[in-house]
Amino acid sequence: MAPKKNYFTCALLLFFLIGSCSVFQCPAASIQQAPDYAPLKKQIEEFVAQRPGNSYGIYFQDLGSGKSFGINENNPMTAASTVKMPFSLYLSTLVAEKKISWDTRFTYQQFTDYEGGNGVLRYYAKEGDRYSVRALNTLSLTISDNIAFRMLARSLGRENFVNFMKGLGGKTVYPGGRNLTTARDMGLYVQQILDFARRRPVEGNRLLDDLSHSIYHVGLPGLLPENIMVAHKEGDLDEGVADDAGVVFGSRPYILVVLSSGVKDLDEGFRDIARISKLAYDYQEKLHSSK
Predict the structure, then answer these.
(1) Phi, psi of 78 (to 5 degrees)
(2) How far is CA 203 from the centre of its chain?
(3) Which candidate, 41, 101, 188, 215, has a CA 20 to 30 Å from the CA of 72?
(4) Which residues lie across from 59 on neighbouring strands?
């Protein structure tokens, strides 16, 4: 385990030394030599065309140049558990600003907090049990615990979280109370996490570390070399939703978001996400080796 942890630290250090300003905020990215991503976009378009029953929202951003492209990137899609990633950024921001502590404890209320699906608290939490913010956040990210997320959202205020995402620049944020997002918005949240990690390395690196050590590691990192760190959050619903969003710390780091619906088999849906991710990874590695 230690070598992987060391690689993660080195990957983050290299990323911060290179620098990567947000294309949504920093015009300096445009003065770097921008690669041509038309061939990669075409590869991905040809791949998703082979899945006529599925709907996709895809967003890609090269962190070195800021160059980006999307495929249906502004189409509203079900966020599923990927929403736990920007929520953790909101929570980490509150901790960094000393508005809350990781040691603060919230009380489990079964009527409002219980939800089936992913997680362990549904088996062990009893009415009145108290859990630290740190424990709840870790469970929410690493095993996608639904009860942990609901406890945090209730205690911190879902409306406050919605306003936070809108403040980051999110355009599709819980419209009509529905958990919808877009690939472009989710890509923006990933970029904001990286920006946060540079400004607040203690809280930011903790967030990236949790995102890099989820038990669900079959989407974006599914076909990549094991030594490549991927900070990401997967999400799925039995109704045919398979999503993944994150940052790949390869030789040329990049953000990739793949949201999909209409998926008949979730395992196959995540294998398709892994295939799209491998197309992006191979393209980036080829660009790096050709420099």
Answers:
(1) -65, 125
(2) 16
(3) 215
(4) 70, 257
Identify residue 243 by its one-letter amino acid code: D
Chain centre distance of CA 284: 19
| One-letter amino acid of 232 | H
Beta bridge partners of 44: none
Domains defined for the chain, CATH in brackets: 15-289 (3.40.710.10)
In a structure prediction context, what are the per-residue pLDDT tens digits for the chain, which is 291 residues long?
344 444 454 455 445 544 444 433 343 344 447 899 999 999 999 999 999 999 999 999 999 999 999 999 999 999 999 999 999 999 999 999 999 999 999 999 999 999 999 999 999 999 999 999 999 999 999 999 999 999 999 999 999 999 999 999 999 999 999 999 999 999 999 999 999 999 999 999 999 999 999 999 899 999 999 999 999 999 999 999 999 999 999 999 999 999 999 999 999 999 999 999 999 999 999 999 886
DSSP state of 262: S
Pick from 130, 146, 155: nearest CA to 83: 146
Strands 77-78 and 180-181: antiparallel
Measured in degrees and rounded to the nearest 5, phi and psi for residue 242 equal: -135, 120
| Closest by CA position to 143, among listed 111, 119, 114, 179 | 119
Q: How far apart are CA 181 and CA 184, in angstroms?
A: 8
